[in-house]
Amino acid sequence: MGRKARYDKKQFIRGALKLLAELGPAGVTMNAVAEEIGAPIGSVYHRFVSRDVLLAELWLQVVESFQKNFLKALERSDGLEAALHTPRWVRAHPKEGKVLLLYRRDELSRGEWPDDIKAHAVKLAEELNTGIRSFVTQMFGRMSRRNLNRTVFVLIDVPHAAVRRYLEVGAILPDVVDELIRDTYHAVYKEVV
Amino acid sequence: MGRKARYDKKQFIRGALKLLAELGPAGVTMNAVAEEIGAPIGSVYHRFVSRDVLLAELWLQVVESFQKNFLKALERSDGLEAALHTPRWVRAHPKEGKVLLLYRRDELSRGEWPDDIKAHAVKLAEELNTGIRSFVTQMFGRMSRRNLNRTVFVLIDVPHAAVRRYLEVGAILPDVVDELIRDTYHAVYKEVV
DNA sequence: GACATATTAGAATATATATTCTAGTATATA
DNA sequence: TATATACTAGAATATATATTCTAATATGTC
């Protein structure tokens, strides 16, 4: 019932993603998003309550994309694969990579989120959390704050740090990145592996 | 010649630093800066051409503060000390730490910088660059892109990554941070040290 | 003490964007 | 074919902040 839609959420999010990767947060104005896909601004607001929510959905989509295979590697107890997932994912998804690694969530979307979006965020956070915790238990035999810290560092923080520098200047990720991540992985897990 | 100043640059920068660390970039409005130190907004503009320039000067001051002892450690060819400088400096300068590690320069100050500020930035960048390069030469016997990459990773990227997570949530830096930085250092430099 | 001027004061203005609002359009359903 | 309504359209509005502007004020110099 009612007229057929010419533009849907996906298109607006794709447009916003492009603008965000190319111009940064300030470039993602509602007019720019509309223009990017040739829609009137009214149609953007027909889909998203606010810019804040549009960016929130974009953010969650990016996080979900990143986490998907990262968690799969963890489930296989393949820590090294999980650590190397970051550069690989970034190579395959350059725009998403920029969003995840160059901006902070609260820089993109600051207001209160609607319940469904908040729920989605909680779900993703919990998935990541339990994924890492069960990996730690597998890996070390038991959970401890220290082991958790080391794992988060090796599987997430270091890979992100290794990649970020290149994304900032828009350079292609060299292979050294993977090499460094690998070295760090073995160093920090030396007692275990 | 003229009346005595009641407010100087330093005070405004200090005020902006506090706001930035507490509220993020959006909290650093010109009115807020003025209010922070009880000055009229006209006096802020009397000292700084624009918000952009105020933030540029703040940024350079923070970078300079960070680099000072970092470079000293490098000059002593003390790579480990240089790597550990990040968590130590952040503990000693929490507000500056947040600014340097949580925000990107172009997020704070986007416009064209006046010549003197640009010159200052170039000077700092060159100092860091030559400091690292001469350290690499000392350390490895010769300069190479690969050795430079490894060094930047170990001395800067990894320490920053280890610290960032805690700054984001306003937590005190635990000792694990130093431990992890140390482990990574030895791992990546294993052929050398 | 008078003058020149660096500085304080803060109200007024400019500008950029998010958001709202009203009108028109196309399609599913009856 | 009539009707309800999801959607398109984009002009008008609201709002937040940076910036400008004009008028005082105090202090060093003559």
Strand count, sense and barrel status of the largest sheet of chain A are: none
Note the total helix count of chain A: 10
Query: Most extensive interface, residues per chain?
Result: A-B, 30 and 30 residues
Q: Whole-Å distance between the termini of chain A?
A: 60 Å
Radius of gyration of chain A: 19 Å
The sequence of SSEs of chain A as H and E is HHHHHHHHHH
Number of E-type strands of chain A: 0
Give the overall form of chain A.
Answer: elongated
- Runs of chain A with pLDDT <50, length 5+? none
* Average residue-wise pLDDT of chain A: 95
Global structural class of chain A: mainly alpha
User: How many domains comprise the coordinates of chain A?
Assistant: 2
In which range does the helix fraction of chain A lie?
Answer: over 70%
Strand content of chain A: under 5%
What is the oligomeric state here? homodimer
